[in-house]
Amino acid sequence: MTLHAFTDGASRGNPGDSGIGILVKDTEGNTVASWHGYIGRTTNNRAEYEALITLLQRMESIPCDRLVIHSDSELMVRQLTGKYKVREPGLKECHRRAAALLAARHSPTVLRHVPRSANRDADRLANLAIDTRARTDSEPSPHAPQQA
User: Fold this and answer.
1) pTM
2) What is the rounded distance in angstroms from the CA atom of residue 104 to the CA atom of residue 98?
3) Euclidean distance between the first and final Cα of the chain, in Å?
4) Cis peptide before 15, with omega less than 30 degrees from 0?
5) In the chain, fewer beta carbons within 10 Å around the N or the C end?
Protein backbone atom coordinates (compact mmCIF):
# COMPACT_ATOMS: atom_id res chain seq x y z
CA MET A 1 0.00 0.00 0.00
CA THR A 2 1.26 3.47 -0.91
CA LEU A 3 0.77 6.24 1.61
CA HIS A 4 1.05 9.98 0.98
CA ALA A 5 2.32 12.16 3.82
CA PHE A 6 2.02 15.95 3.89
CA THR A 7 4.32 17.79 6.28
CA ASP A 8 4.64 21.43 7.21
CA GLY A 9 6.46 23.56 9.71
CA ALA A 10 5.21 27.02 10.64
CA SER A 11 6.92 29.83 12.49
CA ARG A 12 5.38 33.12 13.58
CA GLY A 13 8.47 35.23 13.32
CA ASN A 14 11.78 33.85 12.18
CA PRO A 15 12.66 32.69 14.75
CA GLY A 16 9.35 32.64 16.57
CA ASP A 17 6.69 30.40 18.05
CA SER A 18 6.64 27.30 15.84
CA GLY A 19 4.58 24.23 15.18
CA ILE A 20 4.47 21.20 12.94
CA GLY A 21 1.62 19.56 11.07
CA ILE A 22 1.55 16.10 9.51
CA LEU A 23 -1.19 14.37 7.57
CA VAL A 24 -0.95 10.84 6.16
CA LYS A 25 -3.44 9.64 3.54
CA ASP A 26 -3.96 6.50 1.53
CA THR A 27 -4.21 6.55 -2.26
CA GLU A 28 -7.97 7.13 -2.05
CA GLY A 29 -7.54 10.26 0.06
CA ASN A 30 -8.63 8.72 3.36
CA THR A 31 -6.79 10.02 6.43
CA VAL A 32 -4.63 7.31 7.97
CA ALA A 33 -2.94 9.45 10.64
CA SER A 34 -2.42 13.08 11.59
CA TRP A 35 -0.28 14.81 14.16
CA HIS A 36 0.47 18.36 15.15
CA GLY A 37 2.66 19.83 17.81
CA TYR A 38 4.07 23.01 19.23
CA ILE A 39 7.88 22.88 19.12
CA GLY A 40 8.75 26.16 20.82
CA ARG A 41 10.73 29.06 19.43
CA THR A 42 12.68 28.24 16.28
CA THR A 43 13.07 29.13 12.62
CA ASN A 44 10.72 28.12 9.84
CA ASN A 45 13.38 25.94 8.20
CA ARG A 46 14.00 24.03 11.42
CA ALA A 47 10.25 23.60 11.88
CA GLU A 48 10.03 22.09 8.38
CA TYR A 49 12.76 19.60 9.25
CA GLU A 50 11.14 18.78 12.61
CA ALA A 51 7.87 17.98 10.84
CA LEU A 52 9.66 15.58 8.51
CA ILE A 53 11.66 13.98 11.33
CA THR A 54 8.52 13.49 13.42
CA LEU A 55 6.74 11.92 10.44
CA LEU A 56 9.59 9.49 9.79
CA GLN A 57 9.75 8.48 13.47
CA ARG A 58 5.99 7.92 13.67
CA MET A 59 5.90 6.01 10.37
CA GLU A 60 8.10 3.31 11.87
CA SER A 61 4.91 1.85 13.40
CA ILE A 62 2.66 2.29 10.34
CA PRO A 63 3.28 -0.30 7.64
CA CYS A 64 3.32 0.70 3.98
CA ASP A 65 4.95 -0.51 0.77
CA ARG A 66 5.83 2.99 -0.41
CA LEU A 67 5.77 6.42 1.23
CA VAL A 68 5.48 9.61 -0.79
CA ILE A 69 6.26 12.70 1.30
CA HIS A 70 4.94 16.06 0.12
CA SER A 71 6.47 19.27 1.51
CA ASP A 72 6.23 22.89 0.46
CA SER A 73 9.78 23.50 1.74
CA GLU A 74 11.83 23.68 -1.43
CA LEU A 75 14.98 24.24 0.61
CA MET A 76 14.54 21.11 2.71
CA VAL A 77 13.55 18.87 -0.20
CA ARG A 78 16.47 20.06 -2.32
CA GLN A 79 18.91 19.68 0.54
CA LEU A 80 17.76 16.12 1.22
CA THR A 81 17.83 15.16 -2.45
CA GLY A 82 21.35 16.55 -2.82
CA LYS A 83 20.50 19.47 -5.11
CA TYR A 84 21.39 22.08 -2.46
CA LYS A 85 24.17 22.01 0.11
CA VAL A 86 23.34 22.61 3.76
CA ARG A 87 25.13 25.85 4.50
CA GLU A 88 23.41 27.00 7.69
CA PRO A 89 25.18 25.46 10.70
CA GLY A 90 21.91 25.21 12.64
CA LEU A 91 20.31 23.05 9.94
CA LYS A 92 23.18 20.58 9.61
CA GLU A 93 22.04 18.46 12.56
CA CYS A 94 18.41 18.51 11.37
CA HIS A 95 19.58 17.43 7.92
CA ARG A 96 21.71 14.65 9.39
CA ARG A 97 18.81 13.29 11.47
CA ALA A 98 16.33 13.43 8.59
CA ALA A 99 18.77 11.83 6.13
CA ALA A 100 19.52 9.00 8.59
CA LEU A 101 15.82 8.30 9.10
CA LEU A 102 15.20 8.32 5.36
CA ALA A 103 18.11 5.93 4.77
CA ALA A 104 16.85 3.55 7.49
CA ARG A 105 13.39 3.12 5.94
CA HIS A 106 12.61 -0.40 4.78
CA SER A 107 10.17 0.68 2.08
CA PRO A 108 10.79 3.04 -0.84
CA THR A 109 10.35 6.68 0.10
CA VAL A 110 9.94 9.60 -2.28
CA LEU A 111 10.36 13.21 -1.21
CA ARG A 112 8.48 15.77 -3.33
CA HIS A 113 8.33 19.53 -3.30
CA VAL A 114 4.76 20.76 -3.77
CA PRO A 115 3.29 24.26 -3.95
CA ARG A 116 2.00 25.68 -0.70
CA SER A 117 -1.55 25.46 -2.05
CA ALA A 118 -1.21 21.65 -2.22
CA ASN A 119 -0.17 21.50 1.43
CA ARG A 120 -2.95 23.48 3.12
CA ASP A 121 -4.10 20.75 5.52
CA ALA A 122 -0.62 20.24 6.98
CA ASP A 123 -0.21 24.03 7.23
CA ARG A 124 -3.52 24.26 9.09
CA LEU A 125 -2.33 21.62 11.56
CA ALA A 126 1.01 23.39 12.11
CA ASN A 127 -0.78 26.65 12.86
CA LEU A 128 -3.26 24.87 15.13
CA ALA A 129 -0.27 23.58 17.11
CA ILE A 130 0.99 27.14 17.59
CA ASP A 131 -2.47 28.39 18.56
CA THR A 132 -3.13 25.62 21.10
CA ARG A 133 0.46 24.95 22.22
CA ALA A 134 -0.27 21.22 21.79
CA ARG A 135 2.90 19.17 22.27
CA THR A 136 4.17 16.69 19.69
CA ASP A 137 4.13 13.92 22.27
CA SER A 138 0.33 13.93 22.20
CA GLU A 139 -1.50 10.83 21.04
CA PRO A 140 -1.77 10.03 17.34
CA SER A 141 -4.92 10.81 15.45
CA PRO A 142 -7.87 8.50 16.14
CA HIS A 143 -7.58 7.62 12.43
CA ALA A 144 -4.16 6.01 12.94
CA PRO A 145 -4.23 2.26 12.33
CA GLN A 146 -3.96 0.07 15.40
CA GLN A 147 -1.05 -2.34 15.60
CA ALA A 148 -1.94 -5.99 16.19
Assistant:
1) 0.91
2) 10
3) 17
4) yes
5) C
